[in-house]
Amino acid sequence: MTTNLRIDDAPPATTVQDAGRTDWLHAGVPPSGPLDPTAHAAANLAVGNEPRAAALEIPLGTLHATPLAAMRISIDGEPAIALAPGESFVVPAHSRAVRYLAIAGGIAVPRVLGSQATLLLAGWGGFHGRALCAGDVIAVANAARAAEARPLAQVAIPTVLEPPEPTILRVLAGPHLARLPASALAELTASTWFVSSRSDRVGVRLEGAAIARTDDDRAHPSPMIRGAIQITTDGTPIVLGPDHPVTGGYPVLAVLRRASQAVLARLRPKRALRFVTD
């Protein structure tokens, strides 16, 4: 039995994401994976999948889809829904910036470097290395489980919380404090910042007061990780995301803690946030 899902409409940058790639930064390959790992894992667990399984990441918009065979789905860890063939459904836009659709059995797309995650910049992974659009038909990985799988009773499903306004994000001091004025970290934590509409999976650009830079803080490119907060030449902070460059020349003022990375992903453009240090 083949179990497929037809995409009838999808926001730009809707992709297939599993938990991401590991051990490839040395080769110039970022980890990819979900913007919000908590919501991604919750959706999978609610339909009985492993938390790392491939699911659909749906940013800033509404997805319309139709199952072509019986299946069970969850959105962001909500109780699973059983769907009959042809029973169209909607994943509506939300106050959170990104949502996750998991299908019992997982999504059947090829693995690239050990992962099914889409890396849009390289055209790798996911559904032919690209974002999903109307008319695409994706296969369920384990069709025999698609209609019958249930959440694992012994596994707690994480709760996907609504970020407060303003949202408080926790950071550690970064490795390049010496390349910036002594006041730079204090400026970062004293200011209220706003998520820019120019953000994407590579990084979240923040709007607000510029962070001062020294006259000459140039240096050779350094290794980068998800959560690094780079300060551009005009003083704009950019928080690197799952598709981040693996090296960079901008100084890293701070690093966003892992738990706060998921919270940042939930903030729509123009949402306010503040940073605190541990």
Fill in the keyword field for this structure.
278 residues; mainly beta; Cyclophilin; 2 domains; seven-stranded mixed barrel; five-stranded antiparallel beta sheet; 9% helix
Map the helices and strands.
Layout: E1 4-9, E2 15-17, H1 37-46, E3 55-59, E4 63-67, E5 71-75, E6 81-83, E7 89-91, E8 98-103, E9 107-108, E10 137-140, E11 167-173, H2 184-190, E12 193-195, E13 203-207, E14 222-223, E15 228-231, E16 237-240, E17 247-248, E18 252-256, H3 258-265, E19 272-277
Parallel strand pairs: 11-19
Antiparallel strand pairs: 1-4, 1-10, 2-3, 3-8, 4-7, 5-6, 5-8, 9-10, 11-18, 12-13, 12-19, 13-16, 14-17, 15-16, 15-18
Instruction: Bin the helical content.
Output: under 10%
Alpha carbon gap, first and last residue: 53 Å
Count every beta strand, where a strand is a DSSP E run of 2 or more residues: 19
Q: Structural class, from helix and strand content?
A: mainly beta
Name the strands of the widest sheet in spatial order.
Answer: 11-18-15-16-13-12-19
Portion of residues in beta strands equals 25-35%
Instruction: Give the biggest beta sheet.
Output: 7 strands, mixed, barrel
Shape: elongated
Give start-end ranges of low-pLDDT stretches: none
Estimate the mean pLDDT confidence: 93
Radius of gyration: 20 Å
The count of domains is: 2
Q: Helix count, per DSSP? A: 3
Order of helices and strands: EEHEEEEEEEEEHEEEEEEEHE
